[in-house]
Here is the input.
Amino acid sequence: MKNVSSIILLAALVALGVWLWLVLSPRPEKIIRQRLTQLARTASFSASEGNLAKLAAAEDIAAFFATNVEVDINVPGRVQHTLMGRAEIQQAALGARERLSGLKIQLPDINLTVAPDKQSAVADVTVDVSIGGERDSIVQEMKFTFQKTEDGWLITRVETVRTLSAAILNFALQRAPFIVTA
Amino acid sequence: MVIGRNPKVTLVRAAVLVVICVLGYHFNALRHIRVEGISMLPTYQDGSAHFVSAVPYWLHEPRRGDVVSIRLAGIHVMYLKRIVGLPGETVEFVGGRVKINGRVLDEPYEELFCNWTLPPEKLGPDEYFVVGDNRAMPPENHTFGKVERGRIVGKIIR
Here is the structure.
């Protein structure tokens, strides 16, 4: 009986040690997932947001990205936009908050690959965007490239993924005007 | 609580059922989906609920006319589209009709007016051409095109 108690106590101590180790030194996967979720939450907003809150949120959004970040968004028929650097992201975030009556961003799927040296990572993400006043949401697959820096994991590149690729769609789009938003 | 005449047998049955459910979920044997959007009208209404299964594709490859779910980064949000072109074929739209290798495809499910005319596209050995049934929408507002076999999760079964 004494042996059983000792084994149970030992197992509990090992479990506690593992739990503490996981809490104190979270894996890159967990940190990056949290960063993406925080980014989605920060980028979402409602119509009632004040001007100061808009400015603060735009700054917070820019802080998720590296200074030399490249953002290339191309959602056929909806958005075509290229942003270079944090300042442009901050401007675009502020512009979106000025123009749109609300925005809700959700990330239902995050598929993450961390490089073997644990210094960079690529996240394949399904982005579900609901714009205030619009009935249908926009669903788009996107790729986020992360780099580990002194300031933590920062996004260095964002690009859209063509889940369904069609040269004939490009042909159709050449004849149709884009709706361009920030 | 009623647990059967032989609790051990009941426990084994419950365990087998749990294993089947977990494996079924993991291998996409049966998934419940809810349609959002109008790109599959009139066949599938916005808001309607259905089931998707990967089991048919354990036995054979996807076939023309199958309505399939296509994964994006994962399977919590997927596209629902119909396969019109198979690997190696050439697909084009002429006056609203789909042509496969130059021959018009019979599409009895296609009820809405369509006037798409788009140039031919050759599919690779691992590619399918998928499109929604609602081609009354302008092509630039409709998500369609080539998809790799690995992205096709399953076939709609109800």
Notes: Chain B has a mean pLDDT of 90.
